[in-house]
Amino acid sequence: MEARSAKFRIGQVVKHRLYPFRGVIFDVDPVFSNTEEWWMAIPEEMRPSKDQPFYHLFAENEETEYVAYVSEQNLVSDESGLPVRHPRAREFFRRDRKGRYLIDRAELN
């Protein structure tokens, strides 16, 4: 598999193009890097190609917060400007005055 350049960046807020959830990206895999069982659990007609970037999100929907693993084809940029309420987002990132999520360098040590 040939890796493609990622369209989205760490710290960017995105939303799923089909399902009602959004989140902030905290890691990127250049190609699929989850289990075969996880991939096969996706309905065949919706199963994404493995040769694209996959994103790890501190995600949320109306009811809860969780970690999601999503293919690039299923994400769009979230331009709402609303903060992500996932508690790990506040631990991992800081927000600047414009609402962008920046990596908290202290967390990396």
Report on the architecture of this protein:
- The chain has 109 residues and is α+β, with helices and mostly antiparallel strands.
- It has one domain.
- It has helices at residues 36-40, 87-92, 105-108, and strands at residues 13-16, 22-29, 54-60, 65-71, 75-77, 93-95, 101-103.
- A five-stranded antiparallel β-sheet has the order 4-3-2-1-5. Strands 6-7 form a two-stranded antiparallel ribbon.
- It starts with 12 loop residues before the first strand and ends with a helix.
Key terms for this structure?
109 residues, alpha+beta, five-stranded antiparallel beta sheet, two-stranded antiparallel ribbon, 3 helices, 7 strands
Summarize the helices and strands and which ones pair or pack.
Elements: E1 13-16, E2 22-29, H1 36-40, E3 54-60, E4 65-71, E5 75-77, H2 87-92, E6 93-95, E7 101-103, H3 105-108
Antiparallel strand pairs: 1-2, 1-5, 2-3, 3-4, 6-7
Order of helices and strands: EEHEEEHEEH
**What structural class should be given to the helix and strand makeup?**
alpha+beta
Q: How many β-strands, per DSSP?
A: 7
How is the quaternary structure best described?
Answer: single chain
The residue-averaged pLDDT reads: 92
Shape: globular
Helix content: 10-25%
Euclidean distance between termini CA atoms: 33 Å
Strand order of the largest sheet: 4-3-2-1-5
- Give the strand content: 25-35%
What's the gyration radius in Å?
14 Å
Number of alpha- plus pi-helical segments: 3
**Main beta sheet:** 5 strands, antiparallel
Q: State the domain count.
A: 1
Q: Which parts are unreliable, with pLDDT below 50 for 5 consecutive residues or more? A: none
